[in-house]
Specification:
The protein has 10 helices and 2 strands. The longest helix is centred in the last third of the chain and has 20 residues. Keywords: Signal.
Amino acid sequence: MKTGGGRRRLVFGALLAAAICAPAEAQETGTLIQRKAAQIQDRGKNAARLTMESFAQCLVSRSRGRVTKFAEMRVDDAAYGKYLRSLFDAAGDACLSGGQLQFNSVVFRGTVFQALYAAEFPTADAPVEFSTVASSGYRARYGDAVPDAARSALALEQFGECVARADGAGVRALLGANANSSDETARFNALVPRFSACIPKGETLAFSKIILKGALAEGLYWLSKAAESGAPAAP
């Protein structure tokens, strides 16, 4: 839905406050713990989020090639939805220890990019400064006229890329914080000044923590790939 700038920022501010300022239920800090299979979390309002992030980590560790193929697909590709669902279904037996997860394409995409970034850029010398990178190249995949089927996904990615370009170190630190920890909440709050300036023009973006973190992960991932490959320098 398109809105004027004032309305867009008002809606964003209310949603962001709800997503970030809720008190954390757990107080763990540090990097995410890699698990062979996700354990269903049956308590707490963020149980599904914790389980989904562990599930995505397992998927990336077991099927990196298939996940990389998915990451390269355009969202409006006729095969995109089927391929994404196939990744989710195929990983069920290996990556979920009992119970069921509900499939949500936006949430699943975001958690996969979190896990993919962690797998491909695990060391402290990963790029976090992108002033010399002219473009990640991701937006160019869709040409001048963005298809309706890709508009929301592209808006989230461009938002994440904008924030990552403004504060790559801050985004990387957020991605390394445990889900639902006080550390994660603090790192979200530290990035708030970057967020409102990065909403794509004409878009209203609704955020939960898991969707917001996924968007930031995808944006940082594509900028990091561009920096790694020696993308053309900014003028």
